[in-house]
Amino acid sequence: MEPLDFSLGVEKCEEHLKKAMKDPRLDALFRGIRSDPSAPPGCGVDMSVMCRHCGTQGAEGTARAFLEAPPVGVVLCANRLNDFYQVQASLRHELVHAYDLCAAKLDFNKCHDLAYSEVRAAREA
Description:
Blueprint: H1 10-20, H2 24-34, E1 48-52, E2 65-68, E3 73-77, H3 84-102, H4 111-124
Parallel strand pairs: 1-3
Antiparallel strand pairs: 2-3
Helix pairs in contact: 1-3, 2-3, 3-4
């Protein structure tokens, strides 16, 4: 017997994403991400935020969402999110990482910077 699948699917995830983008806290993160002209590619107004079905390998292995780069973009894994609140929390978490990369210029190849960003993202989400 197959386990029940309560995932949103891409279409419903995108509906929740549009609603979540109206959150003033997320808007503040977006403004910070987009404010620095010397930021890495994708950090400007064209930074992508999308829902998609995620695979089982690499960065998306078991994640509900992840930050991809370059260019910088947020991917929400529609097949691992179950409701609006998970979309909102996952988006907020990944936008903290995007802010840390784009505005604070943290280097995620350095363990200390990555750990710092993970703690901040967990606290905010």
